[in-house]
Design a protein that fits this description.
alpha/beta, three-stranded mixed beta sheet, seven-stranded parallel beta sheet, single chain, 39% helix, 10 helices
Length: 325
Amino acid sequence: MVVQNKFSQYDKVVFVTGGAGFIGSNYLNKYVPRHAKYFFVNIDALTYAAKKENVTAAKLSNYAFEKVDIRDAVKLERLFVKYHPTGIIHFAAESHVDLSIKDPNIFIETNVIGTNNLLSLAKKYGIKRFHHISTDEVYGALNDKRGIFTEKSPMAPRNPYSASKAGADLMVMAYYETFGLNVVVTRSSNNYGPNQDTTKLIPSFVSKLLRGEPVPLYGKGENIRDWLYVEDNIDAIDLVFHKGRTGEVYNIGGNCELTNIAVVKKLLALTGRDAASIRYVEDRLGHDFRYALSSEKLTNELGWKPKMDFEKGIRNTLAFYKTIN
C-alpha cells in the first residue's frame, strides 16, 4: 500500500541544500517556476554567504524554506520525516579558500561531515537521486598554460577547502559503490553572476570599484581561471540531475580562461576606473596557478554547452551589483 502524504500531489520533492547562497538561489529562482510539479525545500543555515532574499521564487506555492545546518543530523532527519523527499541537490558548502587557510575545521565539519549526514539519511529514506555539487579545485592546479582537466584526472587538492570538497566527493562515490545510492557529481569552474557573496573576486572588486575604493590583487595577477556564468552552470546541473548517468562525474567548464589581471582590467574599464585602483598584495599561500575543465563528456552525452560569453555576462553581473551598492 502506498502511504499518502500532503506532498504526494507532486511528482518529486527535492531538497536543495544551500539554496539561499549564490548558485543554489540562482537554481531555485529559475527552476522552481519551471518545475511546477515538483516541491522544493530550501535547506540553508544562512551563513554570511547566504540571504533568504536571494530567492525570489520563495513566493511560489511549491517552495518552502527550512533554516537547518547540515552538520545537525537530528534536525536534518526531522525534515526527511516531514517532507518525504525523493531527490537532493546538494549545494551547501563552505567555499572560501582564504577562510579555509585560516580555519580548516569548519570546512571539514560542513563539507565532509555535513555531506555524510545527508548521504546517510538519503540511504535510510530511499532517496532516488543525490546530486552533489563540487568544484574544479578538487583536481588541484595546472602549472602551465597547457593541458586540461577531465573527469578521469586524479584529484590532487592543494588547500583545505578543495581537500574538504574532494573528501565529500569520495564519500558520495563510496555510497554509490557500497550501498548502491543513486548519485551524480558535477564539478564546475569559477562561477560569476548575480547573488554571489561579495567576498569572492568579481563581486568584491565590483563593489569596491563602485565605491571608488582600490582593489587588492594577489601577486602579479597572472593566475588563470576558467569563468562560467552561473545560469549556464544551473542549466547543466538541472540537466545532470534529471538525465546524468548514475555514479558518474560531469565537469562543467566555461571555456573562458582569463588571468585575474585581465578580469580586473575589464572591471576597471566598465566602472570608469584605471590601473591606479589596483593594489598588488602578497600572494596567497598555495595559490593554484591555473584551472581548466573539459566539458566534452557533458556535451557529448547530454548536449550541454555554455551560452553566455564573458563580455555580456560581466555586464549583467555589474548591473546587478549596481542595484545593491
